[in-house]
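Q: I'm writing up a methods section and want to include an example of the input and output format. Could you take the sequence below and give the corresponding predicted structure tokens, formatted cleanly so I can copy it straight into the document?
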Amino acid sequence: MTTGTSTSACHQEKRMSRPRALSSPYPHICPPPDDPADFTFKVLVIGDTCVGKTSFINRFSDNDFRESVAGTIGMDMKKKLIDVDGKKIRLDVWDTAGQERFRTLTTAFYRGAAGIIILYDVTNEASFNHVTNWLEDVAVNVSRDVCKVLVGNKCDFQHRRVVQKRAITLADAFEFPLFEASAKTGFNVDMAFENLAQQMLSCYQRRMSTKKILERPFSAEKLEYIAKKKTSFAICSC
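A: Here is the clean output for your methods example:
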């Protein structure tokens, strides 16, 4: 009886000493004692259809690339454990599974996201032009302090590139990192996810140090913010 009580107390102590997990902008559960992850974050990869979201996620999670990838049916999620500043972080990476084609992504899909990668195709100008539309969706559906990274996929197709300087201007206007990557070669794929994980960890640590949870602003306020950023983003043909 004493041994059982002691073991239970030991497990309780371990649970209390572990950092709280984070699969949303707000901490919600403590990981079990045998969980190797110190933190868990929900990450969304969004963008127009055919920009390479599924291939981008598969390259990160499985280090795999296929020239022909069937369209995702239903929700798809991949997990990967990475190390950031000595912390074990599990990323639950969600694919939009084609709903972006019909603009039917729901609040339920966005719920709990701590980080978002907005993906466009450097060879497809329309996919880049729609980035600000995706940012408006993000502004409506997630908390104000969600972490974001902009990624231009398919940078291995240099001879077909149509987007470069405008992406730099947009990233500067919205003040988030920009990476050009290739799901085919693996270039900068891990770097984009690691940068996002670092942002999410830093954001969580700041909130815990101040013991303050940021309130979700009204959608109108967030959309006004996006509109102001749009005006600072000069549209040009370069």
